[in-house]
Amino acid sequence: MLLEVRDLHVEFHTRDGVAKAVNGVDYGVDAGETLAVLGESGSGKSVTAQTIMGILDVPPGRITAGEILFEGRDLLKLKEDERRKVRGAEMAMIFQDALSSLNPVLTVGDQLGEMFTVHRGMSRKDARAKAVELMDRVRIPAAKERVKQYPHQFSGGMRQRIMIAMAMALEPKLIIADEPTTALDVTVQAQVMDLLAELQRELHMGLILITHDLGVVADVADKIAVMYAGRIVETAPVHDIYKAPAHPYTRGLLESIPRLDQKGQELYAIKGLPPNLTRIPPGCAFHPRCPMAQDVCRTDVPPLYDVTESDAERGSACHFWRECLHG
Amino acid sequence: MAETTEPILEVRGLVKHYPLTSGILFKKQVGAVKAVDGVDFELARGETLGIVGESGCGKSTVAKMLVNLEKPTAGEIRYKGEDITRLSGRALKTVRRNIQMVFQDPYTSLNPRMTVGDIIGEAYDIHPEVAPKGDRRRRVQELLDVVGLNPEYINRYPHQFSGGQRQRIGIARGLALRPEIIVADEPVSALDVSVQAQVINLMGRLQDEFDLSYIFIAHDLSIVRHISDRVGVMYLGRIVETGRDAEIYDHPTHPYTQALLSAVPVPDPEAREHRERIILSGDVPSPTNIPSGCRFRTRCWKARERCALEVPALAVPAEFRSVSGPAAHDSACHFAEEKQVVPPEGEGEGEGEGRGGGSGPG
């Protein structure tokens, strides 16, 4: 396994108390594989990613337990200067909002070239040539001229391509993409996802795709981890989860999205709201919104049960996964 | 059903150009951002018209003109036959009461220093004829109840609510004056998936309860299909294709609509192998410099010489005029061709006629 997150716990100290953002997350991704981490705002999906990258703000954040094994090494035990060598060169991140992730007062050429001057000790001239090469690779037209331009001179889709180019620059083994296409229009989103998938195949990278969009997940993922209130509630290969979800939250999500190919009258809606992270309900965090909840759900935290039926591994953190899967 | 009665709202040749000027003392116009460049549509009573398009296509500018937040450069907006762009004073005020808006961002569209009661009740200060003073509090509480919020929350402030609840407050405010038309500009795009469904269901219920007509503007094609009776697809300031929802989604004839539909990720991993995707090259051109002829031609894979010379009219394309069927709807393309891009549902539920039949010109 390229990357393995084990029992990760992260909390934030806020004025309202301790917000438990990540409460025991386990997931892993192999080289060449795409793991989609699905969840709504506040589910802890981005905090987990930031912890893996080592860009979590500490304080207010605090990692209270867990391991992040990257090729067998626990990243959380590395010193900051060792960590910096991993970041960018071995694993890279693509953010949602390309405009605010790029420096507005530097040309894109400078920003792309910096990857090579800082990490590889190249001269500025060589780095500039590399930047042009990268922009060609992510199919930005007229790369030679545009390398001298500033981020605001690019459209949203082009900026996201630059972000991808920057992430790919040092050919990392792992890419974490946090909502990479959420800010883009559908036609541009398709272009960008295509590019990302193609580069991943070429470089045989592991990809962690963080998203709330079940459609994007269905298009590109190999396996899925669904998060709710800082925990993984279901994990499965992509085909299985859409066919038969084993957790009522996943099922609710799938039923609540309007479909392009059908017009229904009433959408299924998960009642209530996601919990406040400073006051996560006892037992199963989803029980106040769950149509299947029983007494045991209010008291006992469900472990991630092994619900494997065929050969592919599946897990569900629901006491009644059997009923959910077959009912 | 819509054609027989008079439409409640009729838009003809609507245009909004924002001038671009240069010079400080002697300003002269050097060009214009053609945000909306000739839009026609009508809305029947009790109907929902969905308007879809990518960012910058002018859909929000249309919304703003409908509620009179922007003055059109040209064109007419007829509400029950009366052109509201020419009204002023008291007559305008009466009309505005009947066309209300729900905004996209529930975080910035509510004043953080006002209580929910004041936000919803403010409309009654401007239109006191709707609710007498002593009755207002009760009315606001009723509205909160209608949109599914606890009426006791009347004295709370917006920050005490979640995104979905805030959007309910925005809807309650839109309903306060008992309007006939609600213009909703991306009302659910800022919300989480599970909450989106709640708000959409609420809007559907309210439509029946209060006999509302909706203009529903969104970039999410699945949501628009879910809620709309008819759909208009906008590109660069114009409607390029319009028809009933099944006509647009199952039988699109304009290449832009086809590309847009094929690009939408479908939440079904089985579909990924046998789905044909049309990936458009390039970006939307700048609205200051709209291509000649058909404005989509710079990104269209079918574009020929004629497309650069002639502006295609929004009408039923010649090749479909003789056939009656779902492909015969308005589409602004010289080379319109039917193409099914949304895979039909696995097992049946084929609504009505002609799924496979009438597949384009012979």
From TrEMBL, chain A:
| Compartmental location | Cell membrane
Family matches, as InterPro entries = AAA+_ATPase (IPR003593), ABC_Ni/Peptide_Import (IPR050388), ABC_transporter-like_ATP-bd (IPR003439), ABC_transporter-like_CS (IPR017871), Oligopep_ABC_C (IPR013563), P-loop_NTPase (IPR027417)
Question: One Pfam family of this protein, by short name?
Answer: ABC_tran
**Where's the ABC transporter domain?**
3-254
- Family assignment from sequence similarity: Belongs to the ABC transporter superfamily.
PANTHER family registered for this protein in UniProt: DIPEPTIDE TRANSPORT ATP-BINDING PROTEIN DPPD, OLIGOPEPTIDE TRANSPORT ATP-BINDING PROTEIN APPD
Q: Which domain of life is it from?
A: Bacteria
The source organism is Streptomyces tendae
Looking up NCBIfam families in the UniProt record yields: oligo_HPY (TIGR01727)
Key word Nucleotide-binding present:
yes
Q: What is this protein called?
A: ABC transporter ATP-binding protein
State the membrane topology.
Answer: Peripheral membrane protein
What CDD domains would the database entry show? ABC_NikE_OppD_transporters (cd03257)
